[in-house]
Amino acid sequence: MKQAPSLLDSAADSTPGRSYIQDVFGALGRERIDYALLRGCVALVAAPGTQEIDVLVAPRQLSRLTDVLIQRGFATLPAWGHAPHHFFMAYDSDTDTWWKLDVVTDLRYGPNRAIQVGDVESWLRRSSPNHLLSPEDEFISLLLHGLLDRSAFKPEHQARLAVLRSHFEKHQKAGRRAVYAVERWLAPSLTWNTVNRAIETQDWDLLIQHRSALFRQLLWRDPLMTSGRYLSGVSLRFIRPVLIAFRSRGWTVALVGPDGAGKSTLARALTEERPLRARQIYMGINRDAVNTGLAGTRWMERHREPLRKSAQSRAKSSLSGLAIVNRLVDQWYRLAVACFHRMRGRLVIFDRYVYDPRTGGRTLMAGRNLRQRWLRATAPIPDLVVLLDAPAQVLHQRKGEHTPDRLERMRSAYLGLREEFPQTIVVDATQDADTVKKTVIALIWRRMSGRSSSLHNSS
Which of 74, 198, 229, 281 gives a 20 to 30 Å CA spacing to 363? Predict the structure, then answer.
């Protein structure tokens, strides 16, 4: 079979970031998993960032494909209400690239992917040795994707359709197969002459004008199954939050370490990584850094000192007691917000946590000591504790809030957390911020993909 020129043909083997994904697809080939790339070839030559590749695989081979992907660091993402899609995500720290595989086990288009067109096994049999769709199948796929999924044609898809049309003109056998495919699946709403003229003249609105008629035509070919798929998708998306809360809860990560280690900088960087779906919650007492808390807490923090100075001794004691209770309730409120995000399947990043150790500096008051004990006893244990560690002199140069001796005591106390919490991982905070971020993301994703493996094996 003569294959139309592919975007893969222009990709050099030395393209940054390709080695990881090439190894993944090479593993699929060694496992004899039949698959075909749909619309993600461009991702193999794109710059680092978040890259998405659409992959077609037979339903009978989905389980084996999932095993291969999980073994290579991919985590499964919730896909309720998105059948026949199955989502997988991996992070390549060498190139700071997120790879998302959108694996489909059926050929569906339109709202909630209710319209079924084509046969998976036939499309896979006709695919090339490079796992690319045959020209006629790719042509139909791009047409239906633009007409039914998006109601528009992306510029790269317009260019690709033009390349395929030129290929059909030069290779008559492939052209006849393309004409047959269009007439079989799209006619009479959309004929080959109309499609050919629209692509030749770049009149994409001409194709969009036939969208409604084509949708009705495909709907009435199998109205019961199409309606059932549509209603199933709507129902699952409606109860998706409940399913996530019970089946796919989010993760919690506590960032701890002495002052100057870069906890807040790292927490902000992690929340900017969209694939993580992270929310930052500051658990310290710095009023300016608080991003989640009770409204009354800020008022009390602003007015407590003036009130204390003007109050009598008995009133001062009452204010101190009220402040201790308020801070305790405020911390519990932050933990409740974290629980809400976790129930929504999000990653919660705790900037500081209730594990801040005592370092022999300022003596804790009895009330504050009791508050810390209560918090430690009632706070949930994070899934991962990341300890940012650096020598005291480095920490002092960065922030200068404490003496080197005090910082060294703090550092030793934090390192002691490893004995109490085995999920603690020490990260060298003397590295530049970008390297620390990539290291921590890789640690988090390794744990999350490991949980995906456990859930997959138990199901």
Answer: 281
Q: Which of 269, 301, 309, 272 is nearest to 284 (CA)?
A: 301
d(CA 279, CA 250): 11
The residue whose two tokens read 């409204």 is 295
Q: Provide the residue ranges of all domains of the chain, joining segments of one domain with +.
A: 7-241, 249-458
Q: Which two tokens stand for residue 201?
A: 């003249």
CATH: 1.10.10.10, 3.90.1150.10, 3.40.50.300, 3.40.50.1820. Which one for 249-458?
3.40.50.300
What CA–CA distances, in Å, run from 150 to 138, 144, 146, 213? 16, 9, 5, 16
pLDDT at residue 313 is higher than 70: no
Contact of 273 with 89, CB cutoff 8 Å: no
Q: Which tens digits make up the pLDDT trace of 102-137?
A: 999 999 999 989 999 989 999 999 998 889 999 999
Q: Please tell me the pTM assigned to this model.
A: 0.84
**How many Å separate Cα 82 from the centre of its chain?**
16
Q: Which CATH number fits domain 7-241: 1.10.10.10, 3.30.460.40, 3.40.50.300, 3.40.50.450?
A: 3.30.460.40
Q: What are phi and psi of 179, to 5 degrees?
A: -60, -45
